[in-house]
Amino acid sequence: MPKEKNELLEWIKALIIAVLLAFLIRKFLFAPILVDGFSMMPTLHDRDKMIVNKFSYTIGEPERFDIIVFHAPENKDYIKRVIGLPGDRIEYKNDTLYVNGKAYEEPYLEEYKKQVIDGPLTEPFTLEEKIDRETVPEGHLFVMGDNRRFSKDSRHIGAIPMEKVIGKTRVVFWPIEGIRIVK
C-alpha cells in the first residue's frame, strides 16, 4: 500500500510541476496567437496560428520590419510590421517608404504591388499628417499591416507605446501545410 501511495504522490507532483512550467512558459516566454483578418496579407493569412516570442524584447530593441504583436486600443491584440522606430521621420510617396529621407525596399509588398492597377498600394502620407508629430515619439513604434489598403494600424490608431508590445512573431505553426518562418 505505501508503494502505491508514493507512486500516486509522485504523479501528482509531476503533474503540478508540468502545469506550472507550462503556465510560466506561456506567460513569460512563448504564447500562441491567431491571425484574425487580412491586414497582414500576403505575408500572413487569416486563421494562421503563430508563436509569439515574449522574451525577444527583454534582451533587445525592436528592429525595423519586425512583425510584432501588441495590445491595441480596442482591447484586442494586433499583429503588424514595425515601420518606424523612436526618432524616425516616416513618409510614403510614390508607393515608396522613406525613413529619415532614405528610401527603403519592402520586398514583402512586391506581390501586392504587382496586383494593384488602380493607384498605389500605400497612399502617400507624412508622419505629421497621421500622428501630428514629425518623428516617432520616444518609447513608441509606428506600425503598419502589409495589406496597406485594408489595415487598421498606426495611420489610424497612432504610434504604439513599447509597453503595449507583447513580443515578436515569425513562426507560423498552423495550418500544417503552411508551417514557415516569415520575414
Describe this structure in words.
The protein is an alpha+beta fold. It has a single domain, classed as Ribbon (Umud Fragment, subunit A), CATH 2.10.109.10. It has helices at residues 2-28, 110-115, 127-131, 154-157; strands spanning 30-34, 49-53, 67-72, 76-84, 90-93, 96-99, 102-104, 125-126, 140-144, 160-161, 165-174, 180-181. The strands form 2 sheets. Strands 1, 2, 3, 4, 9, 10, 11 and 12 form an 8-stranded antiparallel beta sheet that branches. It has a 4-stranded antiparallel beta sheet with strand order 7-6-5-8. The chain is elongated and about 80 Å long. The mean pLDDT is 88.
Structural class: alpha+beta
Largest sheet: 8 strands, antiparallel
Mean pLDDT: 88
Annotated CATH homologous superfamily: Umud Fragment, subunit A
Q: What portion of residues belong to β-strands?
A: 25-35%
What is the multimeric organization of the chains shown? Answer: single chain
CATH topology: Umud Fragment, subunit A
Ranges where pLDDT stays below 50 over 5 or more residues in a row are none
The span between the termini is: 58 Å
Morphology: elongated
Please tell me the CATH architecture by its name: Ribbon
Number of helices: 4
Series of secondary-structure elements, N-terminal to C-terminal:
HEEEEEEEHEHEHEEE
Instruction: Give the % helix.
Output: 10-25%
How many extended strands? 12
